[in-house]
Design goal:
The protein is of the alpha/beta class and 416 residues long. The protein is built from 12 helices and 14 strands. The chain has an 8-stranded mixed sheet, with helices on both faces. A 4-stranded antiparallel sheet has the order 10-11-14-13. Strand 6, helix 7 and strand 7 form a beta-alpha-beta unit. Helix 10 packs across helix 12.
Length: 416
């Protein structure tokens, strides 16, 4: 049997995954510092309220709408005030089962097989697989580490554009670095707005201005993946602005979903907001209607329950925000040896530990698991170009997290 080349030819678990499975089968303790599922993080979920909302939604009649139920889209629009000066129009929203499906819709919309999307590196390894499954190719532009923060390399991104490029993906905030699209200078209020965008957000020589100007110039789309937008630290709140809540000069798709914003990945609901010049948005949306109508994948009970689920999600989100802050303080508060440093946390659910370079990061992760029971992602998993990073999830229960970090602190310096 011959299978599609859109699926990798080899799908075996890597050595680290096999070692984790063997350790679990043997009943040995694992301190999991890779946890990304909030439903497994020991949070206090308002289960009765969620169940009641879903039970009520389950009684809703099935009324298929390509963009999703208007009541659900209005609830999403109500999520955006404070993210920018503009109200979000529910008519500019399309609901999907996940942001992964949202990417698939956009690949179908924007290009033929062989088209390219530019995605950041390092990053969570997902866009490459999603692109391949739709016959696209993912090329990369670098995020660059400088002293104490990450930045967008304007020149490298511009150089990566080819005639096949149809979209630029920006993860805002970025996973796992926490980098955020800069829309002001030096953390101050915006100044010198671009003439055709008088809101003051798209300021010259900022990331937002560059991304939109580049997409406009090359007639390509910007895909702003904002699933972590609720998790910026206090000093970065200035940058926690949404592309959906601002006037934009290029065709821009803003992605969000319940998985991160409400800590409800099991309810499978996400959305695409389409922004840009009015005529282009209109032509885009009728085509998205066609694609969405072919799938109709968003669950009616979840859509109908969405206003109440957002209220439940706010309680969950506050817990996650407190958990992240508490665990980061525990990690950063340790006295790390020379050559090790916990990076300032900007946004998201992860922390970065910089350490001496390892000649084989997978072997390092395997030794760490064997000696201490600590499972932590080495940087290669996220395509860091250097071999001197570890990515630490800040989601685990504090007791579990402290035990894992204690083992990491004790053993990692011995193993590098």
């Amino acid at each position: 049997m011959k299978f599609s080349t859109r699926v990798p030819g080899t799908l075996e678990d890597n050595a680290l995954a096999r070692a984790v499975a063997a350790r679990r089968a043997a009943g040995k303790t694992i301190y999991d510092l890779t946890l990304a599922n909030p439903t497994q993080a020991g949070l206090d979920y308002p289960t009765k309220a969620i169940a009641a909302a879903l039970a009520e939604g389950a009684a809703a009649a099935y009324t298929p709408e390509p963009r999703g139920l208007l009541s659900a889209r209005e609830a999403i629009a109500d999520y955006y005030p404070g993210r920018g000066p503009d109200a979000v129009n529910p008519e500019n929203l399309h609901l999907t089962a996940s942001t992964s499906e949202a990417y698939s819709f956009l690949f179908k919309l924007l290009g033929e097989p062989g088209a390219e999307i530019l995605a950041p590196r390092p990053s969570y390894p997902l866009i490459e697989h999603l692109a391949a499954l739709d016959g696209w190719k993912a090329r990369h532009y670098p995020l660059v580490w400088e002293t104490s923060s990450w930045r967008l390399d304007f020149d490298a991104l511009a150089a990566a554009i080819t005639p096949a490029t149809r979209a630029i993906a920006v993860i805002h905030p970025h996973n796992p670095t926490g980098w955020m699209v800069r829309n002001t200078r030096n953390g101050e209020l915006p100044c010198e707005p671009v003439p055709h965008n008088p809101t003051g957000w798209m300021v010259r020589n900022t990331d937002a201005h560059f991304l939109l100007e580049t997409c406009e110039k090359h007639k390509i789309a910007l895909i702003a993946d904002e699933v972590f937008l609720d998790y910026a630290v206090a000093e970065n709140k200035t940058f926690a602005q949404s592309f959906a809540a601002h006037k934009v000069s290029a065709l821009t798709f803003t992605l969000g979903g319940l998985s991160k914003s409400c800590g409800l990945p099991q309810l499978k609901l996400a959305w695409i907001h389409t922004g840009g010049p009015a005529k282009l948005v209109e032509a885009t949306q009728v085509r998205l209607d066609f694609i969405a109508d072919a799938y109709l994948s968003a669950s009616t009970p979840v859509q109908a329950a969405l206003p109440k689920l957002f209220r439940c999600g706010k309680k969950i989100r506050v817990q996650i925000q407190k958990r992240i802050a508490k665990n980061y303080a525990a990690l950063a508060g340790l006295d790390w040896p020379e050559g090790f440093a916990v990076m300032p946390q900007a946004a998201g659910w992860s922390a970065l530990l910089k350490r001496p370079a390892a000649p084989d990061e997978e072997k390092l992760a395997l030794k760490l698991l064997d000696r201490s029971g600590v499972l932590a992602h080495p940087g290669y998993y996220f395509d860091f170009p250097e071999s001197d990073w570890h990515v630490i999830s800040l989601l685990p229960e504090p007791k579990e997290f402290r035990a894992g970090v204690k083992g990491l602190h004790e053993w990692l310096p011995k193993l590098v």
